[in-house]
Write a structure and sequence with these properties.
The complex is a heterotetramer of chains A (about 190), B (about 375), C (about 475) and D (about 170). By secondary structure, chain B is mainly alpha-helical. Chain B contains 15 helices and 2 strands. In chain B, helix 2 packs across helix 3. Chain B is globular. Among the domains of chain C are: about 20-25 and about 120-290, Rossmann fold (3-Layer(aba) Sandwich); about 375-430, no CATH class. Chain C is built from 14 helices and 16 strands. Chain C has a 5-stranded mixed sheet with strand order 13-12-16-14-15, with helices on both faces. In chain C, strands 1-7-6-3 form a 4-stranded antiparallel sheet, with no helix packed on it. Chain C has a 4-stranded parallel sheet with strand order 10-9-8-11, sandwiched between helices. Chain C is an alpha/beta fold and about 475 residues long. Chain D has about 170 residues and is mainly alpha-helical. The chains are: A mainly alpha (about 190), B mainly alpha (about 375), C alpha/beta (about 475), D mainly alpha (about 170). Chains B and C meet through helix 1 of B and helix 7, strand 15, helix 13 and helix 14 of C. Chain C: It comes from Pseudomonas linyingensis. Chain C: It is found in: Cell inner membrane.
């Protein structure tokens, strides 16, 4: 039950995009169409969950025992970047379709600040291994949820007659703000 | 190779129009509004007039600025937005809440997206949430009902002072809403049953004689208006039904488990803006799904969120948040829950040729 | 009644049928000239078989069908062919179509008709061929060659022949009057079709707002057990084949399939009557019943009209116009088309001629969609008209297709109920036209590619042949050596 | 310090070799399938209206982004839309001009067969000494015949709409 609440909390209440403001570049960049945004979300979920686990292992079995915690950011980046490379290769081999859909955004996952930020937050909060994994997974699910919602909204906006001055990114930013407003309702749930 | 100006059929029409729909909704809101205005007196009347007028003014300014025909003002949508916003505000709120809310609702919530029909979020609820977060104090100061002409009721001039000069409410004049009261008392460790037994009267709540925003007080009059809209087929039945059922069901289950912590379904139904939301706000066609299954899901989602946020969240009232969140989900619902097309299965594939059987109606006479 | 399935959606437009339905089918004086488009049917244009100046007799074949998917055209009256060339088409564009102009001599002299003895003794294919030769097309407005449908039907197991007497379009009463006045002939025609298709049963489906037609058809079909007359609810678009099949048999025609795949075939009562006339009396299709109605017409009624009669003559026969109509329509107000002028002729698929005043018409001032979903509720096909139109507007043709454009029957229910007065059907027509354009461009590219390849191959062969000739010329000199080698 | 350097070096070594192995295991051949696909889409009449020597070079120019998706008049809007989708660019349909077709002025034609021989798609029919005419369905509007004609009697014209090519226009925007 605790873990379930923990998960809901990470997905909705402390949503990685709308409450922590991490991962904003893919949030704006890949959300034009629904299918790629869900693909991006799935890829990110994979990376973040694995990233959560591997960085926890790195933290507790390498960095802390060796007393080199100050290298945390550097080490995390190296591990996560390597993992993204690996996943990119696998996707390219397994599903050229998905690879073409995600295009240049797959390497972008490396520089998705959420991918680095989530493990760092996880360490700061002192999670255990399961919590770290859940935290990574939950954050990514929250990310995917928001991506999907936002992509759905943007697909509709593409058909709306938005005034010329606001069409495109401006109205997308306004919408993102209003979406965050809607998510504020979850405040205090956990 | 083209045909500019050549009209295509059909040439007949059922004479429906957007402004008739909007005016029907306004008319359905009228009884509950009039009663609310009577209950809360002159400040409420000022507030209501101010909100509607500033909504119309904002709409007119935006139409002018965007170079659209001013005749669009007549479609009644801006009036309805202002009206709904007024109904969701504390009745004695100061003037700038009304004006600011209207400008936000029409300007950002609606015209920024291109005007009527283009907005993804319900403008009135957007404004209410924005106001609630920006001005929590003003948005949660509830006047107690003081019907026009009753002893303590403010007169016309005092009403103006309350609305425009920000005259502070006297101590005896303000109170908490039923939901807010319950929330506060629960955190103090009292049991729900005891709290409700002491202060909550179902009958008063249904009739509307309790603190709250202008439009959420008289449940019976709201039901009356909603039933009329349903009968005129202006709104669909799916959203109100599934939304109310979801709240009732969750409340009943929770009440069974722990009556000391969770009040029953009727309490939820009769308090706050649930009925106003279910009948008039969630049913806004622009921001709700178009298919029947989609509307059922939308309503149920609203209901669940209302209950969850009311019970465990930090806000005592949740209709606005729930509606906004489900508004955001509407494009996805519309995409995945479509009606089944003739000759196709639910997933959009053609029905198999030749091996179709219908148990209800075989070939030939039964 | 109780075994009828409910169809989805649909609308109940005001019928406006009373005035024209009250009067019997009338005639009109022979017009001086008849205008005969060479294409009054779906498929290939008919080819003229006569020359300018030729004298023709009533019922004489004057244009033949070049393909299976076509229909021949017969002279509606006797006279001379005075012109073969472009004439104004009964089409909203106001463009012309190839056609013939027949100057009537007023004698109405028939050609000698080949009257078959007993059609029930003949084989189905022979009968279907006779229908083809009579130039009969779907008279409910679909203008699909009737014989093609019959021949397709003979290749499938047809359980139910549906005779479509629903006539769901407002204003139109031509089928209603035809059923009241010529019930025996229609029942006879239905039996002939049953014979051709070897169908198990025939259902004559009539909307329940036509009690007289129902009574007349019931009386006429009394002696024949296999023929049922069924009242279907008055609901537009009940007359659409898919909806009628669902309503009567309870089965849906699978998407992208024909109605024969569920063992049903639908023919309009007008078509059935024309088939009966052809098979019993040898008469080709040269006239039809047309409803002349609308509030601008002085005396709305049904007229039996020779094909090719200009619209103006019909209005004159109904007492002329009481006021200037806002719009002239060929067909009903839901699926009919606006006419460019009163000079256009009546064609085989013309069900009605309407002269409508402004108060009977849709408001042309569209406002933005408010997603009220009225169109979704009204759509008899279960589609999402608002999404289709939004995508058509953004030129997202694949998106529009995905939201149902591929299944749309253009019935217009969505437009009828739209509170924003959005011309949804025109958006669909536009998108379908674009798709059509795209397809024909693809076909052309394909064709050009084939031509280019063929040309390249021919050039290669020619070059090879030249090379061979050259080699042959050289050969004699080479010959001795090759012999030595071998 | 040493520890930190060592740890990072070991990590880099391990991850690098892991990635190297993976790259070998999940290797994908790198030739561009796009080029073939686009070549297949082109009309193949080598008419040269795009400004490239033929359909093949045009396809590679398209892949490299040197040519606009609207460069092929014979392919029309249909081809442009497909190319735009394949290449991931947005198409402004307004850029496409209406397709032109050749028309031979019968009064001036001497039946010299030069246009007939120049036509890359065999769209001109007629024997020597007889008046030639153009087949609508096969003409790409490439203007080769116009260049070849000694009498200057070939004109490139837009098609007049007929009932078959007439289309409904988009309703005026709301």
């Amino acid at each position: 039950m605790d873990y379930l609440l923990f998960l809901i909390g990470t997905v909705l209440v402390n949503n990685v995009v709308l409450a922590r403001f991490l991962g904003l570049c893919p949030f704006m960049g890949v959300s034009g169409k629904l299918d790629p945004s869900i693909g991006m979300g799935v890829a990110t979920t994979l990376v973040m969950t694995l990233g959560g686990i591997s960085s926890w292992l790195l933290e507790h079995y390498v960095l802390l025992p060796l007393g080199i915690g100050f290298l945390r950011i550097l080490a995390y980046i190296v591990v996560i970047a390597a993992m993204v490379q690996l996943i990119e290769m696998i996707i390219r081999k397994a599903s050229p379709e998905l690879y073409r859909a995600l295009g240049i955004y797959l390497p972008l996952i490396t520089t998705n600040c959420a991918v680095l930020g989530v493990p760092l937050i996880s360490v700061r909060e002192g999670h255990d291994l399961l919590q770290a994994a859940l935290f990574g997974f939950g954050s990514a699910v929250g990310f995917t949820l928001v991506m999907a919602i936002f992509a759905g909204l943007r697909e509709r906006l593409a058909l709306a007659s938005v005034p010329a001055a606001f069409s495109g990114p401006p109205i997308a930013f306004v919408t993102a703000g209003l979406l965050a407003l809607a998510f504020m309702g979850f405040g205090g749930l956990i | 190779m083209s045909s500019i100006g050549i009209a295509s059929g059909p040439f007949a029409h059922d004479r429906s129009s957007v402004n008739r729909i909007m005016l029907h909704v306004c008319l359905a809101l009228a009884p509950a509004t009039l009663f609310g205005l009577y209950l809360f007196g002159w400040p409420a009347i000022n507030l209501w007039l101010l909100t509607c007028a500033s909504a119309l003014a904002t709409e007119a300014a935006c139409l002018r600025w965007l170079g659209q025909p001013l005749a669009r003002l007549q479609d009644g949508s801006a009036l309805l937005t202002g009206w709904l916003l007024a109904l969701s505000l504390p009745p004695w709120a100061p003037w700038w809440i009304a004006v600011g809310g209207s400008v936000f609702a029409i300007g950002i919530g609606k015209q920024l997206y291109g005007g009527i029909g283009q907005n993804p979020f319900n403008p009135a609820m957007l404004a209410r949430v924005a106001l609630l977060i920006a001005f929590p104090l003003q948005m949660t100061t509830w006047a107690l009902p003081q019907p026009l002409g009753s002893a303590g009721a403010p007169g016309f001039v005092e009403g103006l002072a309350i609305t425009f000069a920000g005259a502070p409410l006297a101590d005896g004049m303000s109170g908490a809403t039923a939901l807010g009261h319950l929330k506060t008392e629960l955190t103090l460790g009292h049991s729900a049953e005891a709290i409700l037994a002491g202060d909550f009267s179902l009958l008063a709540a249904l009739l509307g004689n309790s603190a709250g925003s202008l439009g959420e007080t008289s449940e019976l009059l709201l039901l009356l208006g909603g039933a009329w809209l349903l009968a005129r087929r202006i709104i669909h039945w799916e959203i109100p039904l599934s939304m109310l059922l979801a709240v009732l069901l969750l409340a009943a289950i929770a009440h069974q488990i722990n009556p000391g912590r969770y009040p029953g379904g009727l309490y939820h139904l009769a308090s706050g803006g649930l009925l106003l939301g279910a009948l008039f706000i969630a049913t806004d066609p622009v921001t709700s799904p178009v298919s029947r299954s989609g509307r059922l899901i939308f309503g149920a989602g609203c209901g669940v969120l209302v209950y969850v946020i009311r019970t465990w969240g930090s806000f005592p009232e949740a209709v606005a948040f729930a509606v906004l969140f489900m508004n955001a989900l509407t494009p996805l619902i519309d995409r995945y829950w479509r009606p089944r097309a003739y000759g196709r299965n639910a997933r959009g594939k053609p029905l198999p040729v030749g091996r179709q059987t219908n148990p209800l109606n075989q070939e030939g006479k039964p | 009644m109780f075994n009828l399935a409910r169809i989805r959606g649909g609308i109940h437009p005001a019928a406006h049928k009373d005035r024209s339905a009250a009067l019997p089918i009338g005639g009109l004086p022979l017009p001086p000239r008849l205008y005969l488009p060479l294409r009054q049917h779906a498929g290939a244009e008919a080819l003229p078989l006569v020359k300018v100046g030729d004298r023709v007799l009533k019922g004489q074949l004057i244009a033949g069908s070049p393909a299976e998917m076509s229909a021949p055209i017969h002279a509606p009256s006797s006279g001379w062919i005075v012109e073969i060339g472009p004439i104004l088409a009964p089409h909203p564009s106001g463009l012309t179509v190839n056609g013939m102009v027949l100057e009537c001599d007023g004698e109405e002299r028939w050609i000698e008709l080949d009257v078959p003895a007993n059609p029930f003794d003949e084989s189905p294919l022979v009968l279907a061929e006779r229908v083809a030769q009579a130039g009969i097309v779907g008279m409910g407005g679909a203008i699909f060659p009737a014989a093609v449908k019959l021949k397709q039907g003979t290749r499938h197991e047809i359980k139910t022949v549906l005779v479509n007497g629903s006539e769901c379009e407002p204003y139109l009463t031509c089928d209603d009057r035809l059923m009241r006045e010529r019930a025996e002939a229609i029942v006879d025609g239905a039996r002939l079709i049953q014979h051709i298709l070897r169908a198990y049963r025939v259902v004559i489906a009539i909307e329940d707002n036509k009690p007289e037609a129902l009574a007349a058809m019931r009386a006429a079909s009394e002696p024949f057990g296999a023929i049922e007359v069924e009242a279907v609810p008055a609901l537009y678009p009940m007359g659409s084949a898919k909806q009628l099949i669902q309503s009567v048999t309870g089965r849906e025609v699978p998407a992208e399939a024909r109605s024969t795949s569920v063992g049903a075939l639908v023919h309009n009562v007008g078509t059935v009557y024309a088939i009966q006339q052809a098979l019993r009396h040898g008469r080709p299709l040269i006239s039809r019943v047309v409803s002349v109605a609308g509030s601008c017409v002085n005396n709305p009624r049904n007229l039996e009209v020779l094909i090719g009669t200009p619209a103006q003559a019909l209005l004159d026969a109904c007492g002329g116009l009481s006021l200037e109509p806002q719009r002239l329509l060929l067909g009903g107000p839901m699926m009919g088309v606006a006419l460019p002028s009163l000079q256009v002729p009546v064609i085989k698929g013309a069900t009605g001629l309407l002269a409508l005043a402004p108060h009977e018409l849709r408001n042309d001032q569209a406002s933005p969609c408010i997603r009220c979903a009225s169109c979704v509720d009204a759509c008899p096909m279960g589609l999402l008209p608002l999404e289709m139109a939004a995508r058509a507007r953004a030129d997202d043709l694949d998106g529009a297709s995905d939201y149902g454009l591929r299944d749309c029957i253009l019935c217009g229910c969505c437009s009828y109920v739209c509170p924003s007065h959005i011309p949804l059907v025109q958006y669909f027509q536009y998108a379908m036209g674009k798709q059509d354009e795209r397809r024909s461009a693809e076909r052309k590219t394909e064709y050009i590619k084939r031509l280019t390849e063929a040309r390249a191959e021919r050039h290669a062969q020619e070059a090879a042949a030249k090379e061979a000739v050259k080699a042959a010329k050289r050969k004699p000199a080479d010959k001795p050596t090759s012999e030595v080698q071998s | 310090m040493l520890m930190a350097t060592l740890a990072l070096a070991v990590m880099g070594l391990l991850l690098g070799s892991g990635l190297g192995l993976a790259a070998r295991k999940f290797a994908v051949s790198d030739d561009n399938p796009l080029l073939k696909e686009i070549e297949g889409l082109m009309p193949g009449s080598q008419c040269g209206q795009c400004g490239f020597p033929g359909c093949g070079p045009a396809a590679s120019a398209l892949v490299e982004g040197q040519a606009a998706v609207t460069c092929c008049p014979p392919g029309g809007v249909a081809l442009a839309e497909k190319l735009a989708e394949l290449l991931g660019v947005t198409l402004d349909a307004g850029q496409m001009s209406a397709p032109l077709l050749a028309r031979i002025d019968a009064a001036q034609c001497t039946g010299c067969t030069r246009c007939y021989r120049a036509c890359p798609t065999d769209a001109i029919v007629g024997a020597s000494g007889q008046i030639h005419s153009v087949l609508r369905d096969a003409c790409t509007g490439c203007a080769r015949c116009q260049e070849a004609c000694p009498e200057d009697c070939v004109a490139l014209v837009t098609q007049a709409p007929t009932l078959d090519t007439w289309r409904w226009s988009k309703p005026q925007a709301v």
